[in-house]
Specification:
The complex is a heterodimer. By secondary structure, chain A is mainly alpha-helical. Helix content of chain A is about 70%, strand content about 0%. Chain B is about 70% helix and about 0% strand. The chains are: A mainly alpha, B mainly alpha. At the A-B interface, helix 1, helix 3 and helix 4 of A face helix 2, helix 3, helix 5, helix 6 and helix 8 of B.
Chain lengths: ~250, ~200
Amino acid sequence: MTTPSRRDLEQLSAYLDGQLSQSSQARLELRIKSDPGLASALEELRQTRAFLRRTPHRRSPRNFTLTPGMAGIRPPVPRLIPVLSWASAVAMLFFIFTLGAGLIGQLFVGQTASMNAAAPMGSGAGPLAAAPMAPSNASSATMVPVVAAPAPLAPATAAPLGGGSSNPPPADQTVLPTPTVETSIMSVEQATPPAVSRFAQSPAAPKSLKRQVNYWLFIWPGMAVILGAASIAAWGLNKRAFQRKNPPG
Amino acid sequence: MDESALILDAQHGDLQAFNTLVLAYQDVLFNTALRILNDEDQAADAVQDAFLSAFRALNSYRGGSFRAWLLRTVTNACYDELRRKKRRPTTPLEPETADGEEVESPLWLADPHASPEESLDQAELEHAVQHCLENLPADFRAVVVLADIQGLDYSEVAVAVHKPLGTIKSRLARARSRLRACLQGYRELLPAAFRLEEESSL
């Protein structure tokens, strides 16, 4: 009778569970028959296994089912939230719109300003020529078309050209006045300051320009506020979603 | 219960399908954890952790024995718990007397539905097995619990503890050998019916 080695115990344990090959099993059975020590060890292992298999099975003290919260499954989000989840896209659209509108507005305002600036200069040609001859009509001449300017000039210019004659000259002679060099220089010197001052004081053109600038001054910050609010909303939603996905601890 | 269909549904995020599987396997997992950890509360925690891990890692299940796959998660949870226990030792499971001595037959372990005699026998048996299992290294304990108490075959045990078949054979033989030596000390305390019944059934 021999004390079984570690290798023998492994063989006996596997034999007990039917895990040996047929040839190994046959060889071991021969040894067990001839060696009472191996037979005794096999019997003890068998009893130990049976003993363990009789260990009472307990019922679970509670159910281990998972709740959606434990599993990290969120209930369907209310309808408003998906709309707000597009806040970043909406913010981008607002940004593009604001940028585009701002540029267009700038161009529009620039064009209007240049047109308004050009209008007094163009009409100033009338007063430039007409001022010395009809100063009383100068203020109204700024807004009158250029072609209308010669009409009131006729009586005034006719006097010096006519050599003191009280008779008015024929219509075809008064159409083209021919001022002398001195009168031309004088008229330029006298006409220029009033023309500039009229442009500065003219109420019509600056009023329209001022109105448009004020309008865009309201739109631009409004868009910026909407853009900022949308960005903050998007950031807040993203942060909340991240915290839900990765709860602390 | 169509297990494959439930697993497939659970893999697609169906929590109800997974919970059906939980109810089917929770006793097996709890008993395994209880035998490895020897503490009901810690075993319950390990089982809960195991089911949670299993649900999260369900897509890594690629067929085979689902029971073995689940037992692997609970075995890992038990190893984690044992490591934690080693770092922070707690009071023993067995109640103690006023003198600080361990109570021989803790009746609070008994099944309330059994008769008093059966309860006592089962309690003695359970206490003996649990005490001997406690003396085994954790790796050996897991193998013998899975193979001899839960009745898994070698291949399932290999999946559950993630070790090759040869290692399972070797560990199981050594665990049984050690348990045999330990349980011999309890033979006289246990009812003769156990031995006679076992011996006659061989």
